[in-house]
Amino acid sequence: MTRERPVRVLVCGTNFGRFYAEASRSREGYVLVGLLSRGSAVSRAYADKLGVPLYTDLDELPDRGIDMACVVVGSAISGGAGTELATRLMSRGIHVLQEHPLHLDELTACVRAARHHGVHYRVNTHYPHLDPVREFIAASRKLTARQQPLFVDAATPVHLMHPLIDILGRSLGSLRPWRFAGPAPLPEGFGSQPFRTVQGVLGGVPLTLRVHHQMDPADRDNHALHWHRISLGTEGGVLTLADTHGPVLWSPRLHAERDTDRRFVLDGPGTESFGLRTTSVIGESGSFHEVFGRMWPDAVGRALDGLRDMIDGRPGEAGDTGGVQYDLAVCRVWSQLVAGLGPPEVVRPSKPRPLAVEELFPGRYAGSADDRSATRKTAVRKTVPYTPSAEFFDLVAAGHIATASGPAVAAALSGLDTVGATVVDIGAGTGLVTEAVARALPGVEILAAEPAVGMRAVLTSRVFGDPDLRARVTVTDGAAPGLHLPDRICAVVLCGVLGHLDAPQRRQLWDRLLARLTPDGRVVVELMQLTAPAELPLTRLATATAGRHRYEWWLSGSPDESSDDGDGMRLHTTWRVREIGSSDGAPLREVHDSYRWLPFGLELVARESGLHARPLPVRAGAPPLAVLTREPAPEPALLTHTKDKR
């Protein structure tokens, strides 16, 4: 069944509800038609920002035009009116997705209300829809299909125990049978103990459950000692979810044969398994920026898809063990555990100080909190921005560079004296601009520097595939500002580079470039259209097709609150690959990238470099381009080093 129009979504609540709103706005097949809240100034400002109406009472809702409501308001068990709101919405014929947790009686009442009013209702436990958790669930199902599960060891903060039960049920394929002993007694005379331990059986598998049984009622999430951690063991090894947000680990079983003297047999037949890695890391852990900016909205989007599939009569995604009856079973297991553990200890700790990995492993970690990392032997290497999305770059950049920046750069360098000097293309990407420079300046030697391995692979392939480029272009993995430079430079190309460098790095780069730039040398700079940090809602910027696939390029951004100076932004890109003609459901593949960018204008570039900047003509909406020279150009539109207008 193909929908003729998108699902019209109302989001109730603007705290965690913001993630539902973002998912409804950015996910294909949905449209956000309004917010429902108490009407605070913050909620009104948020509704204005999204361009949707804000309702403060159910009676204000239109009689038509809402298909689905997301109730992201605490239920009675949390002291809120979420369940009453859900039942009233269902009485108006609106399908409801409600955020966990709910008391079993509340959930039962909602299921009955949905049946009575002929609508669909689901509880969203949220965390099973996160990418790393989905990977763990899928791997668990494959593992248990091959080998008998021997144990589950799980840990959770008490307020996220409801989602944990859902994750375990999906991983094991069933919740039944379940049975639990009372929590292990605490030792006397040792003061407060953060964890309680419960032994039991879930889905017929022995379970050890450790619960952080303390809670700050005013701020549950920020004072959890950790989030979900799960290990599932079989005779072949242990599958582990290291954290709710990843990664997944696989540790094969250690087994060595023994000889007649009971010594380990270390070589020869029977030692084939010694070649296995002791632990393999599946997937990559991202930053908390990525959690809030991508992971959580994506997870909400999958929950929306699940309810939409129920409405349309389509089967759910793999790993979903059922509908409302499964939701009821999850709630029963959770309720039984809550009753057995009793009320959590109320704590009000001070603000924690998160530690960076560099503080524990100085000199062994080259990245920041926003870098995705991969282990090579004993070193952890930094993943350069643009590496994850390099395979898609030319799909959208080729047309832009061919019709806009490429001709502009070529025109800016025309007539340049290149004798005995080199053109340096810093951040050359896949070589599209490098190619344009080579065509504009026949015979000139070019140094093309690109630190991102994926982009550099395409660049090298482009150079190798063209005899003229191959004779003149040297490809290097160097990065600014420490790039090894030739002694004499006639031109520098900095397209999409300067915003990646902070002020000291830019000063260092300018000092090194100007010491080598010929008297009439030129520097071409391309920036972004932003001159100050701003909120950029997730927006689809471009689409392209190849074969049977359609590629979508999405971008979002927000001020980088972690920066000391407050001048930076965190930009997130998403590539979605879909079958042509298919717009429903999850894409075939998603690739995400994230990087920091410092937005500023040409005025600052002129001031910092000491050069004169002349804007170049570009088409409307294209990134600004300028050519910088030591002497003023004759054009009246010259920008000298004036006061920065950021």
Automatic annotation (TrEMBL):
<dbReference type="InterPro" id="IPR051450">
    <property type="entry name" value="Gfo/Idh/MocA_Oxidoreductases"/>
</dbReference>
<dbReference type="Pfam" id="PF08242">
    <property type="entry name" value="Methyltransf_12"/>
</dbReference>
<dbReference type="InterPro" id="IPR013217">
    <property type="entry name" value="Methyltransf_12"/>
</dbReference>
<dbReference type="InterPro" id="IPR036291">
    <property type="entry name" value="NAD(P)-bd_dom_sf"/>
</dbReference>
<dbReference type="InterPro" id="IPR029063">
    <property type="entry name" value="SAM-dependent_MTases_sf"/>
</dbReference>
<dbReference type="InterPro" id="IPR000683">
    <property type="entry name" value="Gfo/Idh/MocA-like_OxRdtase_N"/>
</dbReference>
<feature type="domain" description="Gfo/Idh/MocA-like oxidoreductase N-terminal">
    <location>
        <begin position="7"/>
        <end position="124"/>
    </location>
</feature>
<protein>
    <submittedName>
        <fullName>Gfo/Idh/MocA family oxidoreductase</fullName>
    </submittedName>
</protein>
<dbReference type="InterPro" id="IPR010091">
    <property type="entry name" value="Thiazolinyl_imide_reductase"/>
</dbReference>
<dbReference type="Pfam" id="PF21390">
    <property type="entry name" value="Irp3-like_C"/>
</dbReference>
<feature type="domain" description="Methyltransferase type 12">
    <location>
        <begin position="424"/>
        <end position="523"/>
    </location>
</feature>
<dbReference type="Pfam" id="PF01408">
    <property type="entry name" value="GFO_IDH_MocA"/>
</dbReference>
<dbReference type="InterPro" id="IPR048655">
    <property type="entry name" value="Irp3-like_C"/>
</dbReference>
<feature type="domain" description="Thiazolinyl imine reductase-like C-terminal">
    <location>
        <begin position="147"/>
        <end position="251"/>
    </location>
</feature>
